[in-house]
Design a protein that fits this description.
The chain is α+β, with helices and mostly antiparallel strands. It has a domain at 3-34. Helices cover 32% and strands 13% of the residues. It has two helices and four strands; from the N terminus they run ββαββα. It has helices at residues 23-34, 51-58, and strands spanning 11-12, 19-20, 39-40, 47-48. The strands form two sheets. A two-stranded antiparallel sheet has the order 1-2. This is C2H2-type domain-containing protein. It comes from Nitrosopumilus piranensis. Pfam families: zf-C2H2 (PF00096).
């Protein structure tokens, strides 16, 4: 049995020890919590914490 009653699929962030349930959540956590680089829209200059947020923004930015 793993941490917190544990699902053996849980992943731990190597930088802060946060436990996440899957690799996608771990990736997003690392982008938001530990990536100091912002993703910037080339059209309007708006900055985003993640590539996913920038991708969603680009659909409507002209």
């Amino acid at each position: 049995m793993g941490l917190f009653g544990g699902n053996k699929n849980e992943l731990k962030c190597k930088k802060c020890g946060t436990i996440l349930s899957d690799s996608e959540r771990l990736k997003r956590h690392q982008e938001v919590a530990h990536n100091k680089k912002k993703e910037k829209c080339r059209v309007c200059g708006t900055e985003f914490n993640t590539q996913e947020d920038l991708r969603k923004h680009k659909k409507n930015c002209k």
